[in-house]
Amino acid sequence: MKKLKIMKKLLFYFVISLIVFSCQTQKKDTANMKNPFFEEWTTPFGVPPFDEIKVEHYVPAVKEGIKQQETEIEAIVSNPEEPTFENTIFALDKSGALLEKVSGVFGPLNSANTNDEMQAVAREISPLQTTHRDNISMNPGLFNRIKTVYDNRNNLGLDAEQLRVTEKYYQDFERNGANLSPEDQETLKSINTDLSALSLKFGENLLAETNKNFKLVVDNEADLAGLPDDVITGAAEAAKKVGEEGKWVFTLAKPSMLPFLQFAQNRDLREKLYRGYFMRGDNDNDNDNKEIIKKIVELRDQKAKLLGFNNYAELSVADKAAP
């Protein structure tokens, strides 16, 4: 009996050891998971390898991109040499390559072919990127070096392109709070964080209104008059996917909506579809954007006045239009 108890204990410890080893191995495999953003792309013209990029790759790549650019910015700020175009402006322009690489893939995909997982990633990385941009724009050491180059720009032998880049960076830093007091900079950072979250929510609501909350169901074939055959076929397939087999469904997605508005002869249905489109975010439902727009307008006004402008319109066109 005593030997049996000992054997049971040994078996128990053996099973526990296997479980622990399995967990450690799994963690190691996850940590070493190949992330395409950390690899050099050998595809034609450096096109992103979309077939290899997974949703779980974005957040680690963004965090690493932020970390790398922070190191690059610190190297610029701590450089003991006199600020020049090469060691300050050009070095800043080259920084953040990994972050730009990730954003160049995630941004367009999230705009054109998003899903719940991608939107969750956007909610996670958006505040990280906003904070990171603010930390760069309001870095006093970095701005001092940029200002030194800017103040001496006419004596550095810069060509027209270098001169324009120098002026643009200086102006951008000014308009992003570099000259504000530390207290006002903290206020601006808070405003930017809130604006980022509100803009993200506005886009999510608009997307939900476009993809989920409206569809035009046509059950009379006569109402399809004027539509090309391929458009009708596509509408029939769309109907099957939403349980309306034998009918035709048109949505607010542009490939579905635009041909209907252009070719359908039924004016009432065209109006219904068009109203569905321009009323997005204004239907007093969970995706209503009216309050969000109100908050965005208020925060933009606060931001503009904090930066010395009378209103956000002035701030917006300051570097886009002639005086």
Question: How does this model look, in words?
Answer:
The protein has 323 residues and is mainly α. 66% of the residues lie in helices and 2% in strands. It contains 13 helices and 2 strands, in the order H-H-H-H-H-H-H-H-E-H-E-H-H-H-H. A two-stranded antiparallel sheet has the order 1-2. Helix 2 runs antiparallel to helix 4 and helix 6 crosses helix 7. The longest helix is centred in the N-terminal third of the chain and has 30 residues. The radius of gyration is 28 Å and the shape is elongated. The chain starts with a helix and ends in a 6-residue tail after the last helix. 18% of the residues are buried. About 8% of the residues have low confidence.
User: What is the SS-derived class?
Assistant: mainly alpha
Number of strands: 2
Strand order of the largest sheet: 1-2
Strand residues, percent: under 5%
Our count of helices gives 13
What is the residue-averaged pLDDT?
A: 91
Spans of at least 5 consecutive residues with low confidence: 7-32
Q: What portion of residues is helical?
A: 55-70%
Question: Over all CA atoms, what is the radius of gyration?
Answer: 28 Å
Q: Give the biggest beta sheet.
A: 2 strands, antiparallel
What are the secondary-structure elements, in order, as H or E? Answer: HHHHHHHHEHEHHHH
The geometry reads as elongated
Distance between the termini: 96 Å
Oligomeric category: single chain
